[in-house]
UniProtKB/TrEMBL annotation:
Record-given protein name: SH3 domain-containing protein
UniProt keyword Signal present: yes
Signal sequence, renumbered to the chain: 1-17
Keywords: Signal
Originating species: Microbacterium algeriense
Length: 224
């Protein structure tokens, strides 16, 4: 679970979720060898996650032997780091074998001059007291799952989320399914305003399942 202070939210909004998945589980399967296109796509994801080429080679060998990388097998990370990117803030879990999982929180851009982009997926914007069009995403070396949502913090304990939309699930080596919903639209005594996306990605040699979400309580925004 990633916690961001009200000050952090001046430049960061939500994530995505992350590349291994929060709460992900995996089961090693057959010893299928990756196709050339699958290996290329997986290497591209590893590069985007900051995994060095030498580590990529070792992870590809592990995958081709039918063994899931640590980031996809439910193991605990050995280190967690946070960094800024061109589009927001990334929190990275680093595992013993060098594999990684990460969530990303988009930067809040300047208030738009026109109407609020109700169906925008281009970034999180300030509009009418809301953060609008915020993409939450979670990523790993084979898959990604994202959604877009609006949220509003509140110093009176009445934070809100609304309009969960643009749900995606992509898998470079197989099938991917997703479902999501707003669990609680307005903060109450029962808990924070909350929306969650669940997903499952199957690559033959590994299946990952996980969830990415956003919780807003008062002026605090939490993603996972």
């Amino acid at each position: 679970m990633k916690m961001y202070s009200p000050f952090s939210m001046l430049f960061a909004t939500t994530v995505v979720a992350t590349v291994s998945l929060a709460g992900a589980s995996a089961a090693s399967a057959s010893t299928d060898v990756l196709t050339e296109s699958q290996e290329t796509a997986i290497r591209a994801k590893m590069t985007s996650g900051g995994i060095a080429s030498g580590t990529q080679d070792a992870l590809i060998e592990k995958i081709e032997a039918g063994i899931a990388p640590d980031s996809l097998s439910g193991k605990a990370p050995v280190e967690t780091v946070r960094e800024r990117t061109a589009t927001g803030v990334r929190t990275i879990d680093i595992f013993a074998d060098g594999s990684r999982s990460w969530t990303e929180i988009q930067t809040a851009s300047a208030k738009p001059t026109g109407p609020a982009p109700r169906s925008s997926i281009s970034g999180c914007q300030n509009a009418g007291g809301w953060k609008v069009g915020c993409r939450v995403g979670i990523y790993d070396i084979i898959s990604s799952a994202t959604f877009v949502i609006d949220y509003q913090t509140s110093s009176r304990g009445q934070a809100k989320v609304r309009d969960m939309r643009s749900l995606t699930c992509d898998n470079v080596a197989g099938s991917c399914t997703r479902s999501g919903s707003i669990k609680r639209a307005t903060q109450s005594s029962a808990g924070p305003a909350w929306a969650e996306l669940s997903y499952s990605a199957n690559a033959g040699w590994v299946t990952t399942k996980g969830a990415s979400g956003i919780r807003v309580s008062g002026t605090t925004v939490t993603t996972y």
